[in-house]
Here is the input.
Amino acid sequence: MAVSIRLRREGAKNRPYYKVVVADSRSPRDGKFIELIGTYDPKKTDHNSTLKLDRIDHWISQGAQPSDTVRSLIKKNKTQAASALSEVDAPAAVADEPNVVVEPAAVVESAAPAAVAEESPVAPESPATPPPAAE
Here is the structure.
């Protein structure tokens, strides 16, 4: 039995939506399939497909032949997955951001005591010497 990985058309007229399926190559385009392994929406921009890459690798190792369109979708999804992993692994550098303002430590330290003084009001202290007696 020759197995292929291909698109199965769904959706309304002028609103195509495809499911990526593993099917016998003799079955009709929208007919019986073995396994559903992804989706593809050509009307969406950017991330318009989702694929189970581990299942695709399994079926290709078993001898399944992807169609030309599915082959390009697999390639695109593998590069997106690799770039997503590299973005997670790379640390974000704060110094590269242009809107970050770095204040000197002396300015920050001098501002802290003023803020503390405003938060806790202190009653005026009584003078150490009594006021002069009125004569």
Notes: The chain is about 35% helix and 25% strand.
